[in-house]
């Protein structure tokens, strides 16, 4: 589909360095009008730190407000018949080296999230059959976010392959229960939803809705404009525009930015940032959203 779950090897192992401690949680980046830019990075093959290299030429604010580590997995333990959080070696490297991979971005005022993705094993966000099982997985997510100092969790309901290993098919209660439990455990952290998969049509249950618990949701089809149908979220927290930095043309990216601005939405989604300097490409969009070009600082 749109996101390939490849297991690319890193060319070199990341080294720990002495860096300044994380800034106080109250410290925020200077607010820029025009909404937030969100960027997914395939850390199997690219550095998350690339998101911090782009600033607005006018004002100096970071281009990207939210950087997302793509991706951890929801796996299935066939022995215990329970969903488990799995971090592959590349994701693990980012997390354990948080002092050099995560904190520097947070010190710039950016938020760093961990995206959770299915892994072909039958476990997913939509087939928990009890609140206890949903809470158990939510606890794993919250523990990880807290331990590594992450700003939140992102849900991407792809590649679960519901039914594998004797698992159940999606049900109406699972995702809302999971969000409910995670919000109780992370009352002040970000929860975001990549609007795709079975979860996208199972956003309300038992008088509660996903919009009661998630902070943001964004379109998952790159090169297109489509407003996520997440009741309860204001326009400022929705992203109808999504671009693949490597394949969406600048003409399309600028058109999507114009629609985003004209229609009053507050999120613009970018995917697949690499080490290549894309300041010129980003400037085409940033000039529309923020009234400024973008400067690249290696």
UniProtKB/TrEMBL annotation:
The keyword Repeat does not apply. It comes from the Bacteria. GO terms for molecular function: hydrolase activity, hydrolyzing O-glycosyl compounds. Pfam families: Glyco_hydro_18 (PF00704). Keywords: Glycosidase, Hydrolase. GO terms for biological process: carbohydrate metabolic process. Belongs to the glycosyl hydrolase 18 family. This is Chitinase.
């Amino acid at each position: 589909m749109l996101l390939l779950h490849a297991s690319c090897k890193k060319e070199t192992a990341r080294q720990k360095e002495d860096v300044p401690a994380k800034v106080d949680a109250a410290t925020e980046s200077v607010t820029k009008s025009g909404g937030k830019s969100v960027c997914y990075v395939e850390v199997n093959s690219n550095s998350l730190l690339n998101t911090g290299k782009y600033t607005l030429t006018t004002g100096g604010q970071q281009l990207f407000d939210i950087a997302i580590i793509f991706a951890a997995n929801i796996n299935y333990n066939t022995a215990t018949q329970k969903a488990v959080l799995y971090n592959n070696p590349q994701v693990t490297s980012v997390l354990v080296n948080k002092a050099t991979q995560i904190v520097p971005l947070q010190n710039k005022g950016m938020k760093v999230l961990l995206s959770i993705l299915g892994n072909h094993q039958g476990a997913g966000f939509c087939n928990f059959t009890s609140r206890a099982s949903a809470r158990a997985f939510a606890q794993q997510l919250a523990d990880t976010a807290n331990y590594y100092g992450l700003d939140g969790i992102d849900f991407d309901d792809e590649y679960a392959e519901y039914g594998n290993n004797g698992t159940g098919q999606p049900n109406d209660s699972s995702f809302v229960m999971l969000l409910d439990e995670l919000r109780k455990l992370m009352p002040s952290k970000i929860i975001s939803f990549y609007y795709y998969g079975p979860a996208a049509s199972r956003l309300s249950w038992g008088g509660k809705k996903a919009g009661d618990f998630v902070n943001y949701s964004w379109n998952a089809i790159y090169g297109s404009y489509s407003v996520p149908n997440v009741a309860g979220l204001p326009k400022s927290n929705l992203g109808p525009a999504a671009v693949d930095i490597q394949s969406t043309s600048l003409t399309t990216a600028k058109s999507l930015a114009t629609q985003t601005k004209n229609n009053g939405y507050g999120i613009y989604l970018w995917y697949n940032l690499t080490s290549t300097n894309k300041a010129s490409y980003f400037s085409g969009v940033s000039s529309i959203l923020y009234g400024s070009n973008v400067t690249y600082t290696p």
